[in-house]
Design brief:
heterodimer; A: alpha/beta; Fumarate Reductase Iron-sulfur Protein, Chain B, domain 2; FAD/NAD(P)-binding domain; 3 domains; B: alpha/beta; TIM Barrel; Alpha-Beta Plaits; 4-stranded antiparallel beta sheet; about 30% helix
């Protein structure tokens, strides 16, 4: 018997996917905030990509001014609530907490951040004003963390903002790509609604921008921000990828986020990859009731890109690791029945396959978590927009302006795939870049 | 094994820990329960003409995650008929003949004093405590602290009591007075056998920011109460010390104020108390705290070679004097243990903003260990007090101990600053930054 039973109701789903960072109550927040040392030149602030004044907001929570704390958080990061939940705080703010040097548990910064912002959202406290109209219009492609952040900031400056979103919901990966035990759909969307009600940007859903639309956008808007994220899971280029039961991790997680307990997994799932998304996919398969979940990575455990705590989390729900195996073929007759691997070893830093070591590991589902494609085709339609050799949009990191001066960009399409907090930061910085750019034109 | 028994002016108890006159000693049930758990004595909740109390009687001061570091009450003396209390005193003494039961008393007229003294003696009390300290409710009627604040009235009433008393009489003193020595001497002159201190301090523990009323709130209004708990220990210790050092004052002292563990008790005893009384800690944690106090006291006595409580009484007094008698040549400087430092830099801000700008920060941003600028360090201890790491910042002695000069001696030698710009000013060669340097940071 697997640890988790396949969830068949909303309640069972919520139990299997219970929040790993649940909302604090007032007492817990008071006790936890009491522990903060209020460090000088605090390392947690420096470790936050958006530079939130963490000791200040914790002190505000401690004096029972949580709305003030929320203002401090949102001043730096428009995804304050989401980031408190989905940020890898273990390697960011909490990892930098000086208590770590004393072998004392670091301050639970992420959950304190949720506590404060949750109150602002629940009480629908208006913390920001729309800036006096400056008569300029900005189009934003993609309502993900970068796009929404850029929109919020631009609205406080007085820009008119239209966001074009290909899907049904705002917040991008926060609602489509993050593991459900990190943030619920309700929480992700509540923050978006809260921001939109205050700042009044327009979002046009189910409105993918295609090559033909680009000209119109350029004519109608003073600047354009590109926050399109990444594309679908890359093709591995091995046999059997089109078999029934073989899916990409991003697609799998998106389906899970939208359909919850209605998503079915196999009895034995093999997840290919060693990144954080692979860990999520493995963890999610376990929580959906799969009896065996194998995480197969072509290098050693130590070389995995995933954070240690993400692997630990996947293991804690039953995932088993299989290392130094490279997939050769996905086998099956119409449907997946296994993966043929070849064993690998590292020689002088180079990964090499061990001849004759092929074997087939049976399974009835394969989740490929081996990276996402870049949206090069779309981007190539924008005049003068350059990408680097990895397909990432080239920007000036001071203002996130692209090589076509009318275009600014941020988020995964620029950084190649990072955290929500990175997108939030980049979108915000780009807004300042847009302000300077449009004031000159 | 040390002898823990105590003898205050002839009142014997198996150990020095008594319940103070307060709600925990309101009834025979409570006192019996306390004795059963190990308490050595109890001063009964003050007897007199029964009162009528309000509901909503206590207010608390919480500091960060610590609850009730301070506590106040607006409760009055007993609201139970005297005969019930007397009957219960008798019953307690039957069960616990070797434990001390002291009747706390507060009445108005000489006739009442004499009558009630006789009544409690007949009930079998081992001693009497005169409540001249209660700073709320009763003082407005000319009792409690109204007596404690008028040494001549106090002396007169002690005289009345002594006319009828056949058992030891303890005079409980109010701290709501400039010189505790005056009522203490009056107690001695009136013929009292011991003093106990401190009673509660007149206080307002807080104001409700919504209803604009002070705590504890009684139907939208409040009044000053009596303050006690851990926060008052320093005030109590100082007053106990004042009497311990008072020339011509020979009465034994029962120490009260902020005692919640064996350490607090030992501090009171070292400054001159023969035994101690506890209230707030019992109201917070129950009678069971005695289980920590007794073995703690015993092992301290064993470790330090004290055989009896009396051997400890006043043992710190030879080391307490007026400021003029302290050695001005004693020179300590802070030292930071780089291994232990966790890099919070709280010492830096504390010294920089709150003291003498004697701590610097490393230029290299990765190293967060501050350093002491010895020339500027005046040895104030502040950094070592704010440091969250045990023994990380220590104060190291720099003088060789061969020289001693006190203010007293310098005054005698005509070697003290006497004019506003005297060259002998202590800080005359101490470096301070130029005011404008503050704006560059």
């Amino acid at each position: 018997m697997a640890e988790y039973k396949q969830p068949t109701s909303k309640q069972e789903f919520e139990e299997n996917f219970s929040q790993i960072k649940p909302l604090m109550n007032k007492t817990e927040a008071y006790y936890e905030s009491s522990r903060c040392l209020f460090c000088y030149d605090a390392p947690c602030i420096k470790a936050c990509p958006t530079g939130i004044d963490i000791p200040l907001f914790i002190r505000q929570i401690n004096s029972d001014s949580s709305i003030g704390a929320a203002k401090t958080i949102y001043d730096s990061n428009w995804f304050g609530n989401a980031c408190g939940k989905v940020c890898p705080t273990e390697v960011l703010c909490e990892g930098a907490c000086v208590y770590n040097h004393q072998n004392v548990k670091p301050i639970d910064i992420g959950r304190l951040q949720n506590y404060a912002t949750n109150q602002a959202i629940e009480q629908n406290k208006k913390l920001f004003e729309v800036g006096e109209s400056n008569g300029k219009k900005v189009a934003i492609i993609g309502a993900g963390p970068a796009g929404i952040s850029c929109a919020c900031e631009l609205r406080t400056m007085g820009f008119e903002v239209d966001i074009f979103e290909a899907k049904d919901h705002p917040s991008g990966l926060t609602v489509y790509g993050v593991a459900p035990y990190k943030i619920t759909n309700e929480d992700a969307l509540a923050e978006m609604k809260y921001l939109q009600e205050q700042l009044g940007f327009n979002i046009k859903y189910n409105n993918p921008v295609n090559a033909d639309d680009i000209k119109k956008l350029e004519q109608n808007y003073d600047a354009i921000f590109v926050g399109i994220g990444l594309g679908s899971t890359s093709v591995l280029g091995i046999g059997g990828e089109d078999l029934e039961g073989c899916t990409g991790a991003v697609e799998f997680i998106e389906e899970l986020r939208m359909k919850h307990q209605d998503v079915k997994v196999g009895n034995k799932v093999i997840v290919l990859g060693g990144g954080n998304t692979a860990m999520d996919a493995a963890s999610e398969s376990c929580r959906l009731g799969s009896e065996d979940v194998i995480l197969a990575y072509r290098r050693s455990k130590e070389e995995m890109g995933a954070y240690d705590f993400e692997y630990d989390l996947a293991k804690s729900v039953g995932t088993k690791g299989l290392f130094n195996v490279s997939p050769v073929e996905i086998v099956g007759n119409g449907k997946v029945s296994g993966v043929k691997f070849i064993r690998t070893q590292t020689n002088n830093g180079k990964l090499e396959e061990i001849a004759g070591s092929e074997f087939v590991e049976d399974c009835d589902m394969v989740i490929k978590s081996t990276g996402q494609s870049k949206q090069k085709d779309f981007l190539s339609n924008i005049n003068g927009l350059e990408m680097d050799e990895k397909g990432r949009i080239k920007v000036n990191e001071e203002n996130y302006q692209t090589t076509n001066p009318k275009y600014f960009a941020g988020g995964d399409a620029v950084n190649g795939g990072a955290e929500v907090v990175n997108g939030a930061y980049e979108g915000k910085v780009a807004a300042f870049g847009i302000q300077i750019y449009t004031s000159k034109n | 094994m040390p002898d823990l028994s105590a003898n205050l002016a002839g009142i014997k108890s198996p150990n020095p820990f008594w319940l103070a006159s307060a709600p925990p000693a309101n009834s025979g049930y409570q006192v019996m329960k306390a004795f059963d758990q190990g308490w050595g004595g109890a001063v009964w909740k003050t007897l007199g003409v029964p009162v009528v109390n309000v509901s909503s009687r206590y207010g608390g001061v919480h500091y960060r995650d610590s609850r009730l570091i301070g506590f106040n009450n607006i409760e009055l003396i007993t609201d139970r008929p005297l005969k019930d209390n007397l009957r219960e005193i008798e019953e307690v003494k039957k069960h616990f003949p070797d434990h001390a039961v002291i009747a706390s008393l507060m009445v108005e007229t000489k006739e009442q004093w004499i009558q009630i003294v006789k009544d409690v003696q007949n009930a079998g009390s081992d001693g009497i405590e005169l409540n001249f300290g209660c700073p709320h409710g009763m003082c407005e009627r000319g009792m409690g602290s109204a007596v404690g604040q008028e040494p001549t009235v106090l002396k007169t009433i002690v005289g009345w009591v002594m006319e009828a008393a056949t058992i030891p009489v303890i005079v409980k003193l109010s701290p709501n007075i400039s010189h505790i020595e005056e009522p203490a001497m009056a107690a001695q002159e009136g013929g009292g056998n011991a003093v106990s201190l401190i009673n509660t301090i007149q206080s307002i523990v807080g104001v409700d920011l919504d209803s604009l009323a002070p705590y504890p709130i009684v139907d939208g209004r409040g009044t000053n109460g009596g303050y006690c708990g851990p926060a008052v220990k320093p005030i109590a210790l100082n007053m106990v010390k004042n009497l311990g050092l008072l020339k011509g004052f020979n009465l034994p002292i029962s120490g009260i104020g902020g005692i919640e563990n064996w350490r607090d008790a030992v501090e009171h005893i070292l400054l001159g108390a023969t035994n101690v009384q506890v209230c707030t800690a019992v109201m917070h944690y129950g009678f069971g705290i005695i289980r920590e106090m007794l073995p703690g006291l015993e092992s301290y006595m064993t470790e330090k070679g004290f055989n009896t409580i009396d051997e400890m009484v006043g043992k710190a007094l030879p080391n307490v004097g007026t400021w003029e008698t302290l050695n001005l040549k004693y020179d300590v400087k802070a030292k930071i243990n780089e291994e232990k430092c966790i890099g919070c830099q709280i010492c830096y801000t504390a010294c920089e903003d709150g003291a003498h700008q004697a701590i610097g920060l490393p230029e290299n941003g990765d190293n967060r260990v501050p350093y002491i600028i010895e020339d500027n360090c005046v040895g104030c201890n502040l950094c070592s007090l704010v440091c969250p790491v045990e023994d990380c910042i220590t104060m190291e002695r720099k003088d060789d101990g061969s020289e001693t000069v006190t203010w007293e001696e310098r005054t005698a030698n005509n070697d003290i600053p006497t004019t506003f710009n005297d060259e002998r000013a202590g800080g005359i060669h101490h470096w301070v930054p130029e005011p404008a340097a503050a704006l560059k940071k």
